[in-house]
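Changelog note: in this version the structure field was regenerated for every chain. One regenerated record is shown below for reference.
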Amino acid sequence: MPSDRIEIRDLSKTFDRDGQSVLALTGVNTSFARGEFVTLFGPSGCGKSTLLRLLAGLERQSTGEIRLFGQTPAEASRLKNIAWVPQSPGLLPWASLRANVRLSERLNRRADRAPDRRRTPEDADEVLRDLGLEDFAEARPAQLSGGMRQRAAIARAFVQGAELMLMDEPFSALDELTRDAVRLRLLQVWEKHRKTVIFVTHSAAEAVMLSDRVVVMTPRPGRVFREVPIDLPRPRTPDVLDSPAFDAKLREVKHVLRAGWEDAP
């Protein structure tokens, strides 16, 4: 498989639940280019988060193959080349914001010496500044708003320096106004550093706002139904998001989602 892409071939995942087999994913085939921002979008229970966990090496696929720029998920994980941004920011409550963000630097020192390492950790203070958190670097998590804590989790992932960033509904606990602000901050930092991002959301508007491409999945057992390119100009400013072109893409993604429902077995 190519070493400059993420490749998923004929992937399936079956779970054993109370003695019964549950098919979560079946026949998943897709790929992602280096530096691309792709969103997995689909109904609840379609396997979006399961697919993310397979990419992270947190679960093993039942059949099929995954290659992350030529590496297995286990190999990429061992080299600390995967960053994870969960729904909950998971900050250490006794540590400052700067210390929380720099935690990945401390944990990944041995990986930094890997001879085949292509990534470069970003400077913590630079990323904090890019995310508008420089004035709160010495604050503890309890002193921060929910949006600030989630931005800190994003900053920690960027500082890790991993090539691949996996984001599992990181804004789901935020109110809509805060989500809009944090999304724009994320896009600004991503434009600067161009990590490969695979993002999970239940929001069609969020998928269109952030992505180069939206991968629409069917209800369980999840499979890729269709991929919608988002050819809106970057950077995605508020003017872009208020445009007729944005509304047209939003309608297209919703239409494909409905068609995926109808196509499900």
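Spot check on this record: DSSP finds eleven helices and nine strands in the chain. Residues 5-263 form a domain with the Rossmann fold fold (CATH 3.40.50.300).
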